[in-house]
Design brief:
Elements (H helix, E strand, L loop, with lengths): L6 H8 L10 E2 L22 E3 L6 E3 L1 E4 L21 H13 L4 E3 L9 H9 L8 E6 L9 H15 L4 E9 L5 H10 L3 H10 L3 E8 L3 H13 L6 E5 L4 H8 L6 H11 L3 E4 L12 H10 L5 H10 L4 E7 L3 H11 L7 H15 L21 H13 L13 H15 L25 H20 L1
Parallel strand pairs: 1-11, 4-5, 4-11, 5-6, 6-7, 7-8, 8-9, 9-10, 10-11
Antiparallel strand pairs: 2-3
Helix pairs in contact: 2-3, 3-4, 11-12, 14-15, 14-16, 15-16
């Protein structure tokens, strides 16, 4: 019988929320049914591989993110926290991925309420160890795990859960996060000597590649790359957020973020392989407005909306692999169709995607990826649900605009309010935010969540008052 842990225990271990700063590519949202039978079958033996110049590893351009593993019933362990992982489905998907050339599997002690490493290890153990690369992380977010002993135990437990003697790719998880990013980085990795200890484990062969995943304060990113330049620490790879919207617009969308063109450029200067996360922005670049999807379909009728983003992320030569957190078989097949082989973007196609990025940016939505790192809210607010409803109304062109003479205002106002109540129970709406700020430090997109909750609540109250006027 596989061991399980309660959600309460898991949150205590990780310090209040299932924090992880390397959100992986979310597949298209689905209802949970397997629609793969109607899909074109991806070819075998056609996967595109990139060579890691540090050691000659030939890594599949499509990497499997083990953050959104399927649960019994429908949905993923990311959203359905209390549901059991569907291990049989994990077997099927991992086997299918390996059969079609995927050989990079990325997990963490923080994923799936602490059960991702175990599910991943059980599935991969059935395959020849030389046929895959496993990546996991030092996810010591909670102060309870900042001691040298606790962090060492986290690494040892990862080996145990993954049923391996060594990790191919080990990351410092989410450098740059927190309200005081430098202080948190030092507490997690420097004051306890754990970074030097990990370097020792690499020398012993227990870690083959040592790197970090980045979200947050750019000064920490630059500091670690400076250490690389100085020879203080050598980074074998770095995991960054890269997609066609964040390429030029990350800091315009949120001044606390950094454009992907800078992040990637700094790695290429140093010839450091890049592992890509968030090529679909948690699904935002799949669930694009209808007019954007129509543009893409007009240009490439046979390709999915997701394939455009996946090809953008995989085109740069310095990219080693692009992570995809695939819950359903149809997501896996669609991504395989884009990577077996990968067709790099042409200059014309790249320019087209920059135009699409302009279209999406000009919608001025809140940059929430529905990653759930801000959850649970101590006051019960469904933060991703609130932001998602607001963004959807903007993207669909259904935002009520009382300041205009829009004849459709009354319909849009009612649709917004009714849809809000249907999407988010009233006790979990923005009105109940007290501005405690606990969520802010956990948000990889660095959104000022209390400010947005207050703004949305004010907007909702104005709609309600105008309705009764």
């Amino acid at each position: 019988m596989e061991k399980n842990i309660s959600r309460r225990s898991f949150l205590k271990v990780l310090g209040g929320s299932a924090v992880a700063s390397a959100p992986l590519l979310a597949g298209c949202k689905g209802a949970g049914k397997d629609e793969s039978a109607s899909q074109q079958e991806p070819p075998k033996g056609k996967m595109t591989y990139r060579t890691n110049h540090n050691n000659g590893d030939k890594v599949s351009i499509l990497g499997y993110g083990m953050m959104r593993l399927p649960v019994v019933g429908k949905g993923s362990a990311r959203e359905q926290a209390d549901e059991a992982i569907d291990q049989e489905m994990v077997y099927r998907e991992v086997d299918y991925a390996i059969e079609h050339g995927v050989n990079y599997f990325d997990t963490s002690p923080a994923y799936c309420q602490g059960l991702s490493e175990r599910a991943t290890g059980i599935a991969l153990k059935r395959h020849d160890r030389s046929k895959y690369f496993v990546a996991t992380k030092m996810s010591n977010f909670s102060p309870d795990t900042w001691t040298r002993q606790a962090s060492q135990q986290m690494f040892e437990n990862s080996l145990k859960e993954l049923q391996v003697d060594y990790v191919d790719y080990l990351l410092l998880h989410g450098i740059g996060m927190g309200n005081d990013a430098l202080a948190e980085f030092n507490s997690r990795y420097m004051d306890n000597g754990i970074l030097d200890w990990l370097v020792e484990q690499k020398a012993k062969g227990r870690i083959r590649n040592l790197g970090f995943s980045y979200h947050g304060d750019i000064k920490i990113y630059d500091m670690l790359l400076k250490w690389h330049d100085e020879g203080r620490y050598h980074w074998d790879f770095v995991q960054i957020e890269l997609n066609y919207l964040d390429w030029n617009y990350a800091d315009e969308i949120n001044p606390r973020n950094t454009d992907a063109v800078y992040l990637y450029g700094e790695l290429t200067k140093r010839n450091i392989p890049a592992v890509i996360m968030e090529p679909l922005l948690g699904g935002r670049l799949v669930n694009v407005p209808d007019f954007v999807a129509a543009k893409m379909k007009e240009r490439e009728p046979e390709r999915s909306v997701a394939s455009w983003a996946l090809r953008f992320a995989g085109t740069p030569e310095g990219v080693l692999t692009v992570l995809s957190g695939m819950t359903y078989m149809e997501h896996l097949k669609d991504n395989l169709l884009s990577t077996t082989p990968l067709k790099p973007l042409t200059k014309e196609e790249n320019a087209f995607l920059m135009e699409i990025a302009d279209d999406i940016y000009n919608l001025k939505t809140i940059p929430c990826n529905e990653c759930n790192y801000c959850m649970p809210c101590p006051y019960g607010i469904d933060i991703p649900g609130v932001l998602s409803h607001y963004n959807k109304c903007i993207a669909d062109g259904n935002m009520p605009n009382r300041g205009s003479m829009d004849p459709d205002y009354r319909r849009a106002r009612r649709a917004f309010l009714v849809g809000y109540d249907r999407s988010v129970p009233r006790l979990r709406q923005a009105a109940h935010c007290i501005g405690c700020g606990q969520c802010v430090g956990h948000c990889p997109q660095r959104i000022d969540i209390p400010k947005e909750m207050q703004r949305i609540d004010k907007f909702v109250e104005e709609l309600k008052q105008h309705e009764s006027a």
